[in-house]
């Protein structure tokens, strides 16, 4: 049995959270999930994604519709359950939206984390895996990016909230040796669970590239809008490190296992493939895998975006025993639609 039996997953009904819950259950953990449905689909019965996670694993999830800004509500959950460790996903996450509504992002992401840390401390729960982001690096000084790359020169508000939280965790872990925290700096998650039951189901117009592409392929949108084709890259479009969401989920289980046998105070790891793929390249792979055509519309660069970014994830391989296994082609196999992910078939 894992050392940490009961895991609280904040933002558990979301895209990355729901995939991580599946891996946690399969690894033998009990999961308490909370979500306020800011980024996830909810209904009168709770979370459709988590119901499907139960279907995939054959195991039960305790779920609360709850908001980290409501401190008494979160405190009650800790009073009811013997939580061993927290995986903290819950955050507003759209770069474009963050540039338009900075106060909303600072309030939700920073205050939510402050409340969570105070409640954890009051319940003597000092173990955490934090969902951070490669955006903390800003415009890269070198590629691939290692964990020692400078942080702080960030181009968007979303990234600044992740950076400020990392600084908060740095101060906290320095002040009190009981804290044991791993911060995982994600690169660009895409794809879906191979069952086709869960995946990315955006609730906002500010959405990620892959579900937007799927909507175009299905005729729900006329063209894929590409922000900028004048970057200093081989084809003019931005380059990112796309990582399959199931590889990302397995990184969290690896981080939990490491925390279970090591007192690190605070440790940072990149989670990425180590390969940069341009927007245009990703579209071409998607077209080939799904046998569809994606019309493109190029518009001006989006405020807050950078030119190119990909990871050096060798530290996670060396210390966590983790590396990616799934390919770009496998990331393109599934589509979003009607609140459910299905194997991609344009006739559906």
Q: CATH first level of the largest domain: which class?
A: Alpha Beta
Strand proportion: 15-25%
Which blocks of ≥5 consecutive residues have pLDDT under 50?
335-348
Radius of gyration, in angstroms, nearest whole number: 19 Å
Q: What oligomeric state do the depicted chains represent?
A: single chain
If strands are numbered along the chain, what order do they take across the biggest sheet? 3-2-1-4-5-6-11
What structural class do helix, strand and pairing data support?
A: alpha/beta
- State the distance separating the first and last CA atoms: 42 Å
Total helical elements:
11
Strand element count: 15
* Order of H and E elements: EHEHEHEHHEHEEHEEEHEEHEHHEE
User: Do you know the CATH topology of the largest domain?
Assistant: Rossmann fold
Largest sheet: 7 strands, parallel
What is the average of the pLDDT values?
92
Query: What is the domain total for the residues?
Result: 2
What percent of residues adopt helix (DSSP H or I)? 25-40%
Fourth-tier CATH superfamily name of the largest domain? NAD(P)-binding Rossmann-like Domain
Shape category: globular
CATH architecture tag of the largest domain: 3-Layer(aba) Sandwich
């Amino acid at each position: 049995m894992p050392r940490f039996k009961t895991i609280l997953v904040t933002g558990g009904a979301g895209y990355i959270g729901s995939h991580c819950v599946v891996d946690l259950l399969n690894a033998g953990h009990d999961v308490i999930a909370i979500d306020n449905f800011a980024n996830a689909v909810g209904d009168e019965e709770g979370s459709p994604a988590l119901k499907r996670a139960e279907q995939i694993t054959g195991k039960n999830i305790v779920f609360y519709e709850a908001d980290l800004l409501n401190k008494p509500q979160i405190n009650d959950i800790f009073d009811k359950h013997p939580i061993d460790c927290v995986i903290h996903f819950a955050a507003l996450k759209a770069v474009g939206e963050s540039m338009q509504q900075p106060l909303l992002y600072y309030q939700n992401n920073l205050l939510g984390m402050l409340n969570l840390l105070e409640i954890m401390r009051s319940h003597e729960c000092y173990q955490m895996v934090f969902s951070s982001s490669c955006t903390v690096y800003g415009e890269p000084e070198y590629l691939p990016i290692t964990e020692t790359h400078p942080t702080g020169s960030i181009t968007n508000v979303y990234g600044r909230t992740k950076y400020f939280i990392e600084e908060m965790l740095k101060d906290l872990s320095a002040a009190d040796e009981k804290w044991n925290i791993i911060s995982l700096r994600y690169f660009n998650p895409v794809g879906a669970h191979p069952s086709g039951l869960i995946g990315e189901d955006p609730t906002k117009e500010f959405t990620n590239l892959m579900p937007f592409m799927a909507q175009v392929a299905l005729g729900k949108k006329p063209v894929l809008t590409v922000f900028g084709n004048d970057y200093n890259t081989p084809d003019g479009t931005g380059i990112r490190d796309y990582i399959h969401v199931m590889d990302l989920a397995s990184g969290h289980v690896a981080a939990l296992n490491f925390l279970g046998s090591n007192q690190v105070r605070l440790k940072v790891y990149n989670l990425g493939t180590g390969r940069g793929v341009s927007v245009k390249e990703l579209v071409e792979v998607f077209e080939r895998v799904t046998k569809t055509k994606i019309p493109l519309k190029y518009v001006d660069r989006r405020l807050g975006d950078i030119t190119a970014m990909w990871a050096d994830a060798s530290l996670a391989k060396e210390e966590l025993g983790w590396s990616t296994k799934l390919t770009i082609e496998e990331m393109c196999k599934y589509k979003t639609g009607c609140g459910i992910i299905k194997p991609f078939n344009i006739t559906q």
